[in-house]
Please model this.
Amino acid sequence: MSGSTLLTAVPIDLPLLPLRDVVVFPHMVIPLFVGRPKSIKALEAAMESERRIMLVAQKAAAKDDPVVSDMFDVGCVSTILQMLKLPDGTVKVLVEGQQRATVNKIEEGESHFSANVTPVQPPVEAGGGERGESSEIEALRRAVMQQFDQYVKLNKKIPPEILTSISSIDDAGRLADTIAAHLPLKLESKQTVLGLTSPKDRLENLFEQIEREVDILNVDKKIRGRVKRQMEKNQRDFYLNEQVKAIQKELGEGEDGADIDEIEKKIKSARMPKEALKKAESELKKLKLMSPMSAEAAVVRNYIEVLTGLPWSSKTKIKHDLGNAEGVLNEDHFGLDKVKDRILEYLAVQQRVDKVKAPILCLVGPPGVGKTSLGQSIAKATGRKYVRVALGGMRDEAEIRGHRRTYIGAMPGKVLQSLSKVGTRNPLFLLDEIDKLGTDFRGDPSSALLEVLDPEQNHKFGDHYVEVDFDLSDVMFVATSNSMNIPPALLDRMEVIRLSGYTEDEKTNIAIRYLLPKQLKNNGVKDNELEISEATVRDIVRYYTREAGVRSLERDLSKICRKVIKGLQLKKMTAPVVVTPDNLNEFLGVRKYTYGRAEDNNQVGQVVGLAWTEVGGDLLTIEAALMPGKGVITRTGSLGDVMKESVEAARTVVRSRAARLGIKDEVFEKKDVHIHVPDGATPKDGPSAGAAMTTALVSAFTGIPVRGDVAMTGEITLRGEVTAIGGLKEKLLAALRGGIKKVLIPEENAKDLQEIPANVKDGLEIVPVRWIDKVLEEALVRMPEPLTEDEAVAAPSTPSDVPVVVAKSRSDAGRSVKH
Model:
C-alpha cells in the first residue's frame, strides 16, 4: 500500500476473500465485485479492523462454495480503499495489494473464512560484494522490459501508457509484479509468479512467458494479415457480386437462389441416411468456401439440391382393402384376369407380412390392349403414386444410372429423377416399351436396368451422379412390352404376364362401357343426343378396325361423335341421332375390312383352316386343284418356309395312305397339283395348316367335297398324327364369327379349352382329334372307298423324285399370318 509500512514475517489472523479468475499482486489496485454472502461478511470484518484482508485465488473458478482445499497456498495481504454496496445486493470494492503472504491455516467460520497467514518480506536489493548478481538482475530487467515493450506493440488490448509507468519502476520485484498483473496469462501462470519470492526467479519466469506470448502474437499477426488479405479480396468480390445482383434485380433478371441457411435447413429436413448426410454436409462445407458466382459453386449447389430432393424416407400409405382394389381394377379394365389376380395376391400377402418385396411385373402384349393404362389402375388400386418412364429409343446407359458430376450439364438418371418428381420412395414405376431399348457406343441401358429390377440388389442402387446408394426395394416396378424380344438376363428378373388381343365380345364391351362414355364427354355430346346399339359397335369392330387393341375403335367412335356434333350444329340432324348397322357407312364411310365366312356349299379341294395374327384370329381358305401333268407341285399364296414344308408333309401322308384312301398310284405321276392359299398379298407361315393341307389334297385326289361348315387347325406328321398348335382362343373366336359350326383341334390342345370363354364353347362343336383319319372322317362328306388288292399297284416313289414349282410371292406383303 502506498506509504504503508510492510508487515513483519509474523503470523497474523485476517479475514479471507476467495477470488475467482483473479490473482492480486502487491502494489496492484483493482476493483472487485463481491456477491457471495461469506465474501461480503469477510469484507465487513476487514473494514472493522484496519481494513486489511487476505486475497487468495480459487483453484476452480466455477465453484460457488469453495472449501479449504480449493484455494491456493499463497495470496496477497491487501488494503480496502473503498467499498460501495450496489442496489442488487452485490458490493463493489477497490483494493490495493500490499504484501505477499503464505497461508498457514484457513478456518471456515459461520459467517466468513479466516486465515492465519505469514507475510513474506521482500528481499533487499543486492549491492557491494553482490554486484555480479545485481548485474544479472539488471540484465533480466532490461530483457523483460524489451520483450514487454514488443508485446505491448503486438497486443492492442494493453494501452501503450503502461510502458511509461513501468519504465519508472526501479525495484525489480515490483517491476515483475506489475508486468505480471498486466499480462493476460492463465490463472496458474500468474499464481506461479506470485509464489516466487526472489525477483530474479520472477523475472526469469516472466521473460520465458512473455517470449512465448510474443511468438504466439507474431504467428497470430501473420495469420491475421493473411486472413485480412483474403477477406479484402472476398469483400471486394462480395461487393461486386452484390452490385451485379442489384443491377440484375433492376433489370428483372435476378434469380432467387436458396442461400446457405436454406440449404442447411433442407439437409436437416431431408432425413437422409448417414452416408448421404455425410456427403451432403461435406459438399456444403465446400460451398461455403466458394465464391457464390463461381461455376463450381453452381455445380455443388445443384448437387446438394438433387440430394435433398430425393425421397429418402417419404412413403405413401399402401391400401390393403382387397375388395376396393378389385373394384378399382374391374372398373377401369374389362377382362385381363391374370394381371388382376396377381395384384390381388400381392395385396393379400402384404396384409400378412409387414415387409414384402414388391413384384416386378412385365406385361407383354400387342399395342392398344391396355398395358400402360393398367399400370395407372394398379397404382390407384394399391394407393401408390404413379410415375412413368418411356424407354423407347433409349440408347445411353447414363439415362438410367446418371452422368458423373465431372461432365458439364450432368444430372441423375431417369430413375432417381422420376422419384424426385413424385416425392415418394414407394411409387408404382412404369417402364414403358422395355423391348424398344437400344444399344450403341454409349453403353447398354438394358444392362443398367439389371440392377434396378433385381430385388436382391436394388436396395443399394448406385447412381453415378448422386454417388450414394439409394433403396429401390419399396418401388413396385411394372414393365410393358410388345414382344418377348428382351435380353434374357433382364427377362429373368421379371414376372411375365401375357396379354392377348381382345376378342370381339371384349372389344364390344369395352367400347360400350368405357370408350363411348369417354368420347361423348370429350366431344361434348349429351346422352340424349346420340344412340349407338351393341350391333353397331360390333359392326365397327368387324368392318372398320383390324387390331388387337381398341385404339382404332376409340378413334372411330370419336369420329362418329364429331359428325353428330357437326350435324346438330348445322341443323342437318335432329336429336337423338341413332347410328345403326345400316347407316354406319354415313358416319365412317365404306367398310375397310371383311372377315372370313363359312362357305355355303361343300367344295372339292377347298378346306377352311384357322390362322392366328397379331390382331386376332381369322379363317384361312386352302385350295387344292389337279391338272394333267407329270406330278409337279405348285404352291402359291406368299407361303413361308414352314408352310411349304407342310405341303410336302401333307403330300407324303396322302401318298403313304393312297390305297386306303382309294387313290391309285399312277395319279401322283400323271397329275400336277396346285395348292393356293388366298389372299396372295399376305405373307403366311407356320406349321398349323398341315391337317388342312392334307384334307384338301385328299378331297382333290378323290373328288369328295369338304364340308363348308367345318374348320380345322393342327400340324401334321409323316405318320398322320395331328400335333399341338398355338393361338387356340383367337382361332376359335374367328370360327365362331365366321359361322363355322364344327372345329377340329389337336387332341393335345384339349387342355387349353379351360381358358376359352363359355359363349365360344357353346356356339361351336369342338372335336379334338389325334390322327388324320379322324379329321377326314369329320371333314369329308363321305369317306373314300379303299382300293382292292388288284387295283393297288407298287409302292409309290419317294417324294424327293417329284419336281416342285414354287410361285414367287408378291412384294407388296400385308399383314403376317401364322398357323
